Amino acid sequence: MEVKPGYDLSLYNEDLAPVPLDKRTWGTYNFAALWISMSVCVPTYMLASGLIAGGMNWWQAILTILLGNLIVLVPMVLNAHAGTKYGIPFPVLVRTSFGVRGANIPAVLRALVACGWFGIQTWIGGQAIYSMLKIMWPPAGDYAAGVWICFFAFWGLNMWVVWRGIDTIKVLEGVGAPFLLAIGLLLLLWITGKAGGLGPVLKTPSKFHTTAEFVRFFIPSLTGMVGFWATVALNIPDFTRYAKSQKAQIWGQVLGLPTTMTFYSFIGVAVTSASVVLFGRPIWDPVELLGKFNQPIVAFIAMIALLLATLSTNVAANVVSPSNDFANLNPQRISFRTGGMITGVIGVLMMPWKLLSDLSAYVFGWLVGYSGLLGPIAGVMIADYFIVRHAQLDVDDLYRRNGIYEYQNGINRRAVAALAIGIGVALIGLIVPPLKFLYDYAWFVGFAVSAAVYVTLMKRR
User: Fold this and answer.
1) DSSP 367
2) Distance of CA 161 to CAs 89, 137, 204, 207, 221, Å?
3) How many CA atoms, within 13 angstroms, populate the side-chain half-sphere of residue 329?
4) Cα–Cα distance between 335 and 15 in angstroms, integer?
5) What is the CA radius of gyration of the chain?
6) What is the pLDDT of residues 298-317, one digit of tens each?
7) How does pLDDT run across 356-382, given as a tens digit for each residue?
8) Would you tell me how many other CB atoms lie within 10 Å of the CB of residue 379?
9) What angle in degrees, to the nearest 10, is found between the helix axes of 104-136 and 320-329?
10) What is the pTM of this model?
């Protein structure tokens, strides 16, 4: 490995190095396909179906999801700028604000959230395999350990894709995207046909009788929608470092994220509403729903689509970032592959089956809760890059000790203080009931507070 003179090996390896111009090959389609593949997944479906199960009607749920994705698109595009301009990944970019050693703090926070998501997606994939087996071969349901065997089998498949590297992920996203959209549309047509068409499905009224009741559910739900992609809003430079141009990454994300999330969420809304017509109750888990239709061919095709969707989302959204983040801890000993293996192990240890135990735990506990951690990181990053530095970075100093990003022994205490204050304000509502509204707005509150505190402290510096 050739290392540029002056680079510190504790801050550098090939996976963290700036991507040279001749290797920045991702165009608009690649980024649109990336977002299509990441958005068309079971958790996206569960977002919409969860809102229906919580009491919204179909248009309220769709509007909430669309608004949330338009909001999160803003920090997504802003953080993507540095990756495209300088070819650097998230854990290297965050060194500008937190310091060359302090960057490990936000990187590890982001990585741990990704590990939780990796576990959730892998558990969903394992359940899909198990449900498919029970439909195709009913005696499989007699084995109590069957779901665990399928879970670890799908886990192994994810690890194999990670071991193959970033190019395999790129191919998987590009090939899978159009196929997954087609399967989703076919599923929508099939199940609404069973329920008598879209008319009866979309007539299900909202359960909220007053505006106040709706607002109490809407606000934390909107925060959850933003929190859903608050993870990738931080580590989007991990992908845009391969972009051909700013235009390619911006248009790819604008065309891919809000449109696909809204479309696939509509499928979740319609199918969940159809489950009310067919079974008398909203079934928000598509794996459970598909298990109720004893039609092996339909179930087999749908489950294959779920597996492909879950796999493509998992490796792109939940492995690329933590692999780089863990590598940032010790670049000489932890590679992208090793970081991916660490992600896989921690994802299992976080017990994803409990995170998916019910709607409240998924949306209001998991999504809203971690958004209070990630919103403040985004606030510091964006304020630093655009307000403090005006998008001008010294790339070489990002890989050196005693450079301009050294601060105090490699840590910018002002950034750490801004992060801590933002997280504290965002999450204080968990322990102080009169301030629960701050928790309901966790991502927004944390973002604004940390950004304001950071800019104030840096100007004094």
Assistant:
1) I
2) 20, 28, 42, 43, 33
3) 17
4) 7
5) 22
6) 667 766 777 776 777 777 76
7) 766 666 666 777 888 899 999 999 999
8) 27
9) 140
10) 0.83
Neighbours of 163 (CB within 10 A): 12
Work out whether the CA dihedral 411, 415, 419, 421 comes out positive or negative.
Answer: positive
- What span, in angstroms and rounded, lies between the C-alpha atoms of 405 and 407? 6
Angle between helices 146-164 and 166-194 (to 10 degrees): 140
Distance CA 325, CA 339 (A): 8
Type and span of the H or E element at 15 = none
Pick the CATH number of 23-358 from 2.60.40.10, 2.60.40.420, 1.10.4160.10, 1.20.58.460: 1.10.4160.10
Q: Which residue has the tokens 């299992």?
A: 348
Q: Are 310 and 124 in contact (CB under 8 A)?
A: yes
Phi (first) and psi of residue 306, to 5 degrees: -60, -40
b/e per residue 268-294 (b: at least 16 CB within 10 A): bbbbbbbbbbbeeebbbbbbebbbeee
Residue with tokens 């950071």: 454
| Token pair of 240 as six digits | 């845009």
20 secondary structure, DSSP code = P
Quote the tokens at residue 216: 């109490």
Q: Are the CB atoms for 362 and 50 separated by under 8 Å? A: yes
Low-confidence ranges of the chain (pLDDT < 70): 1-3, 5, 165-181, 183-184, 200-201, 284-285, 287, 290-291, 293-295, 298-299, 302-303, 309, 317, 357-364, 461
Containing 19, the helix (H) or strand (E) segment is: none
The tokens describing 295, both together, are 């039609």
Domain ranges of the chain: 23-358
3-state secondary structure of 391: coil
